[in-house]
Amino acid sequence: GGGRARPAAKGGNVQYRLNVSFVDAANRADQRITLQDGKTIDLKLPAGLEEGTQMRLAGKGEKGIGGAGDALVTIHIEPHPFFKRDGDNIRLDLPVSLDEAVNGAKVKVPTVEGPVMLSVAPGSSSGKTLRLKGRGFSSKDGTRGDQLVTLEISLPEADADLAQRLAGWSDSRQVRSKLGV
């Protein structure tokens, strides 16, 4: 019997679930995690981070005769109240006033890196989408997606002044003609 000796068993792997805020995930902000042994580690989030991404921390699991097992960290990206992920892009529905849509305006827009000013062109309609380049999630190759801002015209409720100003005016365009009605 010239059999080889079996290597000593490594310790078991330990599973962790890490909840990461949407903004931290988009910005790849370092996350502090406390391991089973009480030690803390600052975890660098990888490019291309998605819901369910698993990170392996070699040697940070259970101790064993043949060495420690690994820590397996599964990332959960928490939903955001107004940002939505679309691949590497971030979508935002932005309310604008009728005045801002008709006359054009510079409006403050939230991004995952903080607010920026965005120009709304005169005559903008609801549903128009504007692009903020490089304000999205990082892809695996390190490039960054965009933030897509969709305008939503917000009309005031029962505004007598607005109704008076529009009295006698009607839009003669056939705005639903493409729908066949």
Structural class: mainly beta
Number of helices: 3
Q: Give the helix proportion (percent range).
A: 10-25%
Mean of pLDDT: 91
**What is the CA-CA span between the terminal residues?**
88 Å
SSE sequence, one letter per element: EHEEEEEEHEEEEH
**Low-pLDDT runs:** none
Radius of gyration from CA coordinates? 26 Å
| Largest sheet: number of strands, sense, barrel closure | 4 strands, mixed
Strand order of the largest sheet: 6-7-11-10
Strand percent estimate? 25-35%
Outline: elongated
Number of strands: 11
Written description of the protein model:
There is one protein chain. Helix content is 10%, strand content 33%. With 181 residues, it is mainly beta. Strands 6-7-11-10 form a four-stranded mixed sheet. Strands 1-5-4 form a three-stranded mixed sheet. A hairpin with a 6-residue loop joins strand 8 (105-109) and strand 9 (116-120).
Tags for this entry?
3 helices, elongated, mainly beta
Compose a concise summary of this entry.
Helix content is 10%, strand content 33%.
